[in-house]
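Blinded run. Sample ID left blank on purpose so nobody reads anything into the name before looking at the predicted structure. Input follows.
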Amino acid sequence: MKTFKILIMILAISVALYEQVSDQKNIYIMVIAIAVFMYGMMQLSAKTPSKNQEKEEQDAD
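Blinded prediction complete.
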């Protein structure tokens, strides 16, 4: 599933970059591609633990 999300993010950013260099720019496609990329980044980084996670657990005890 992680690989699938990464591939979708690469596709979305590729579409956004392609739209950026094209002669007739479609702002809606760029916004959707960037939103998909940001959503994918949020999903992938949600599982990354915080730097202060151990300190917060010690403070809670």
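Unblinding after everyone has recorded impressions. The chain has three helices and no strands.
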